Amino acid sequence: MSFKHGVVITGLIGSGKSTVCALLKERGYKIICADSIAHEILELNSSKVAELFGAQLLSGSKVDRKALGAIVFANPSAKKSLEELLHPLINERICFLSNELERTGKLYFVDIPLFFESGGRAKYDFAASLLVYAPKELCLKRILRRDKADETSANARINSQMDIEKKRALADFVLENTSDLASLEHDLRAIIEQIKTKMSLLDA
Predict the structure, then answer these.
(1) pLDDT for the residue 202
(2) Is the dihedral of CA 28, 21, 120, 66 positive or negative?
(3) Which residues have a Cβ under 8 Å from the Cβ of 187 and sit 6 or more positions away?
(4) How far apart are CA 139 and CA 165, in angstroms?
(5) Predicted model pTM
């Protein structure tokens, strides 16, 4: 399925995807957030999650995401089981929302943190991919500061994702987020213009 007006935003945890999405929203762009969709679908399938990982993960009908995260980040087979349950449903929702935005004929963005890890290029034909880049060491510092996490759990979360340098090699556009907000905004404006140029060439 082709989404010729959609651009995927991806990166490593702590690289600054949320900040970039907030800046894009300020500029009036529509954002589809895979994490928000995943949270909704997780709650809708809480009983199936309990069957897989135990009823202790439920508080009423709500899933304790922190406890679930501790399980899946530490156990690759548990992570695979969760992905097999949720990913098809998440993909279906992303495609539905992308189709809705395609009808506007305007540039929009799809925030998919695990785009490359989940074989996103085979699932979706978006116009381009945009990597929000920061070195692994800087991402770790940001997670420790932001989440008040211990270094072991923060590293586990980072190591559960594809190496940022590999993502950089796969991405169509790279947005450096290693300095201050003003630099990020300036570079984002420039990349948006590059993306629009590429899209206009594709439409020609």
Answers:
(1) 66
(2) negative
(3) 175, 176
(4) 13
(5) 0.89
27-82: per-residue pLDDT in tens?
999 999 999 999 999 999 999 999 999 999 998 889 999 899 888 888 889 988 99
Task: Write out the binding residues for ATP.
Answer: 14-19
Residues 6+ apart with CB under 8 A from 1: 95, 99, 124, 125
pLDDT digits (tens, 9 = 90+) for 135-145: 999 999 999 99
Name the CA radius of gyration of the chain, rounded.
17
Ordered by start, the domain boundaries in the chain are 2-203
**CB environment 47-76: b (16+ within 10 A), e (fewer):** eebeeebeeebbeeeebeeeebbebbbeee
Q: State the Cα–Cα distance between residues 107 and 53, nearest whole angstrom.
A: 40
pLDDT band at 122 (very low <50, low <70, confident <90, very high): confident
CATH (residue range 2-203) = 3.40.50.300
Please give the Cα distance from 39 to 118 (Å, whole number): 17
Binding residues: 14-19
